[in-house]
Design goal:
Blueprint (H helix, E strand, L loop, with lengths): L7 H20 E5 L10 E8 L5 E8 L13 E8 L5 E5 L1 E2 L9 E8 L3 E9 L11 E4 L4
Antiparallel strand pairs: 1-2, 2-3, 3-7, 4-5, 4-8, 6-7, 8-9
Length: about 140
């Protein structure tokens, strides 16, 4: 009969590995966008990570998002909005594609930093990139997180 001996060194290594995995997962949140009736093929996620300065890095990756001029009615740009407990909904930027508009692979990404912790991220199709309030064409949205 072979007996497995658990050594203190093995236990310490196991505890350390578990602690590192927990810390790694606690540092960032990855939230999927909900399926949209406006662009049903679009998929994506938002990753939110707090940095050393207590700011929140927001990274968005999207696939299969149609160009805004193909929507009904056609629009010019996709705008990313952030909702937080500390501030009202605000425009945090415009979606840019990896090359040309959404490239041949229909991939796009967005990165920004906010001093406020986001509770929800959503994307609308707009005619102007400088809008201060979201329009009615909601393209993608996360639930509250």
């Amino acid at each position: 009969m072979i007996r497995k001996i658990v050594t203190p060194k093995f236990l310490l290594s196991l505890i350390l590995l578990i602690a590192v995995l927990v810390l790694f997962n606690a540092c960032s949140k990855k939230i999927a966008f909900q399926v949209s009736p406006v662009t049903p093929a679009a998929q994506g996620f938002v990753k939110v990570k707090q940095d050393n300065n207590q700011n929140y890095a927001i990274d968005i990756d999207l696939t299969n998002l149609a160009a805004p001029d193909r929507l009904q009615p056609p629009r010019r740009v996709y705008i990313v909005w952030m909702e937080s407990n500390e501030a009202s909904i605000r425009n945090i930027g415009q979606i840019n594609s990896s090359s040309n508009w959404l490239s041949s692979k229909l991939k796009a990404s967005f990165e920004t930093v906010s001093s406020n912790k986001p509770t929800r991220i959503f994307i609308t199709a707009e005619d102007d990139s400088n809008v201060q309030y979201p329009g009615s064409t909601m393209v993608l949205s996360t639930g509250n997180f």
